[in-house]
Structure formats: C-alpha cells, structure tokens
Amino acid sequence: MPTLQDLMRVLEQAAPLAYQESYDNAGLQCGNPAAEVRGVLIALDCTPAVVEEARRRGCNVVVAHHPLIFKPLKRLTGATEVEQTLLLAIRHDIALYAAHTNLDNVLHGVNRKLADKLGLQQLRILDPKPGLLAKLITYVPLAHTEAVLQALYQAGAGQVGAYSECSFRTEGTGTFTPGTGTHPHIGQVGQPEEVPEHRVEVLLPLHLKNAVVRALRQAHPYEEVAYDIIRLENQHQDVGSGMVGELPEPLSPAEFRQRLKTALGVPVVKYTAFEQPIRKVALCGGAGAFLIGNARAAGADAYVTGDLKYHEYFGAEGRLMLCDVGHFESEQFTGEIFRDLLMGNFGSTFAVLIAETLTNPVRYDC
Predict the structure, then answer these.
(1) Residue pLDDT, tens place only, 231-248
(2) What is the pTM of this model?
C-alpha cells in the first residue's frame, strides 16, 4: 500500500512547498509519513465535521486547500475549533495535509482550474515570481556530455516553459594537473593535461538545486567536478499569482456576469460599473485584491476574485470590471485538482473522495 510519504511526494511534485508564500503553512499538519494510506477525503477547509466524515467513510487522510494550522498554536486544549479539529484527527489517527498558496502559484493549480471553468484561452500567469530560478554551468569531456545532460534533465533541470531538455553548450579546452593521491579519469598524476570539454549551461528551479548537483556528481566522470550555480532574478513564467486569458468571443458585462453565475453556481456577484465588452479576463482564486493593479496593467476588461473590501473596489479606476464572486466560490473546484492528481498516480489503490460536508461559512439570502 502507498504510504502518506508517497502521497506527499506526488502532491509536492505538482505544487512544491518552496512555492508557498512566506506567511503560509502548507504541508503535513499532523500524521505519520510512514503510515499506509487507506483512503483520502478532499476538502477546501478542514473542520471537525470534515474529520468526522473522513472517519465515517474510512479515510485516514484529509487533503485540504486551506491549512488547519495557519497561526501558531500555544496550547492544545480544544478551546477553539482549530484545536478541536486537530484533537479529533489525532484521536482517530487521521493525517491532515494542506496544499495552499503553493497550489495557487503553479501553472496548473487553483487559478488554472477557475480559468478552465470560465472557458478562458491563451492563459498565462498574471504576476510571475522572480528569484526562483538558477543557472548551472559545468564542464564535461565531450564523450560524456549527453550522459551528464540526461542525468540533469532527470533531476529537474533544463525545463523552460513547455520546452524540456533545454541546454546550451560551447566547446573549449580544460586544463589540470592531477595531484598526489588523486585518481584521475583522464591523465596521470603529476602530468599536466589538456582535455576537449563542453561548457554546459542549464536552468533549474532553485529548490531542486541539491538534487541537480547530486545528479551531476553521480553522472560526471571526473573525481572533482567543476560547476557554478548562479541565482537568477528572471521571472519564473510558470509560477506566480493569478492568471489572465481571453474569452472565445467578447461578452457584454451583463453576459459575463451571467457566465460567472452559471459556471460557478453563485447566486450573487458583487461588481463595479463597466460598459465596455469583456474579452480579456484576469482572475485569482481566494482573496485577490493585491492583484488589481496587475490586472489593470495586463489590459484586462474584468478581474474575478473574492474578499474585496469597499475601498478596494475603487481600484478599478473605471478601466475594468471588478467581480467579487466569494472566496469559497472561487476555489470550490480545487478538490478536482487533488482528485485527478491522486487518482492519476495511484489509480484505485485507495479511495479518493471529495467531502460532502459544506465548509463555506457564508450564506446568501437572495
């Protein structure tokens, strides 16, 4: 049977913990990574009712979008709902795992799911993050270049957008003199040596640095491997906040709001006045007021998000229509991401169920 560690590995390959925001607390909240997974219940939030549902339906893991433990706990007495939920999970040996802003920030995460529900095309990240990439430069004897590159690719290097196995190489001459006690792959101790080599350059996600260097050392024929890792300020086009795309055809503002209601099943959309046709749409699941300026700069006709405050609506500046569909409503399909990911990797090895418990605390009197 797969273990909780196996499940975490799959989730974190899709949404690396390194991509969560600094204030977040994604990852394993409680549970033994070595425990076998008997069943997984998926929910947007983890509450006592969700944990009870997991117990009732034979699931020993709850995977949620929002972390149960978000702020530090000073005690565990059951005085708050968070503490009650955690105690209940521990009592019934149910592990709790959360993928939050790390799932928000990846190309095929929460915002992509929302964009797909709205039928948007030509999608890209609205606010790509800088400082997440590095460049590896190394020097390899010509005959070993392909083997070294394949090892680097397998470790996660060489990916640029939708292109894989990307590298750059130039040919030159490496020089060295093996010292006493060395075991050179080429040359003899004490004898100066010149070797035709490739200078090889590849990009890599910074959080994979250790794995890529380990793969380089294992695949490289030299006893001492020369390499440089340079941290880049380039934006990572596949990681960041929000998303922007286009509708297949323009809609009037009223037609677009109706599309929101139909696609998301929401009874109410709070919005700002706007009279122009809606073609380009920016969005951010959850609380996305911080991206209003980015949506304007991207030339969006509408920006869809949740949790907007009164004064934040003025940020539209008459240049786009702000649409607040609600926090829960904008993230309600996140469970489908977890379900498809787990079933795609584990098949029917264990049950993967979406919670029936409604965790949205908001009600509408329409």
Answers:
(1) 999 999 999 999 999 999
(2) 0.94
